[in-house]
Amino acid sequence: QRRLNVREVDFKNIRRRADDRLSHLLVSRRFNFAAPGTKVVSFFSSEKALAGKAFWTISTDISASKVLCLWLNSTLAFIESLLLQTETEGSFIEITKEKLLEFHIPDLASCDTSALLVAFDKVRHVEFPPLVQQFENPPEARQIIDRAVLKTIGYDDDEIDKLLPDIYQAMATEMQSWQELMHKSATKEKAPSLQLHLLSSE
After folding, report:
1. Cα-atom radius of gyration of the chain, to the nearest Å?
2. How confident is the model at residue 146 (pLDDT cuts 50, 70, 90)?
């Protein structure tokens, strides 16, 4: 206490605040879409982890945490991140608490999540390439995630086969724009609004 220059340390309060942040599921608050180190934005831990301020924590059970982790790392969730983005400097995206609550996620109480859990187990130990590379030549794990998510919301295999290539092509173009934006940010140019590659041209 003397070293901290305080009269009293409320360890019970510290413990209580720490317990409130313990979670199986961590979600990045702010990330650079175009950075080589950005591969996924949501993380699962079989043991509850205490996250720092760089992450949002979602308190739920292990099964639900796996489903949400997979869902938030899907291409559909990345698209939502772009559409709901809070603009920050360069190619950074910040997910605020309000924006996180706006994400479209499955109703775990009524949704059959078995396919999502199977997909999670298939990809949970995969080392993903940088996000900017996952759409030009989608790895198997990326396709496993997205197929499971699309099936859960009602698409059949034929529809998915037709839809995914277009989504990946649009995202690849979008990622190129974000890479250019990252390089331009070094000159402190103002970050533009969301690019329109993901929007219909019709």
Report:
1. 19
2. very high
Model-level pTM? 0.78
User: Which residues touch 74 (CB under 8 Å, ≥6 apart)?
Assistant: 145, 146, 149
138 pLDDT band, cuts 50/70/90, is very high
For 123, how many CA atoms within 13 A lie in the half-sphere containing its CB? 28
Spatial distance between the Cα atoms of 97 and 144, rounded to a whole number of angstroms: 28
Predicted pLDDT at 16: 62
CA atoms within 13 A on the CB side of 96: 7
Nearest CA to 43 among 33, 53, 58, 30?
A: 58
**CA-wise closest residue to 171 among 30, 16, 34:** 34
Interval 150-169 mean pLDDT: 95
What six digits make up the tokens of 164? 């995914």
Residue 119 CB coordination number (10 Å): 25
CA 11/CA 100 separation, integer angstroms: 31
**Cα separation, 166 vs 169, whole angstroms:** 5
Residue 111 · residue 70 · CB < 8 Å: no
The pLDDT of residue 2 is above 60: no
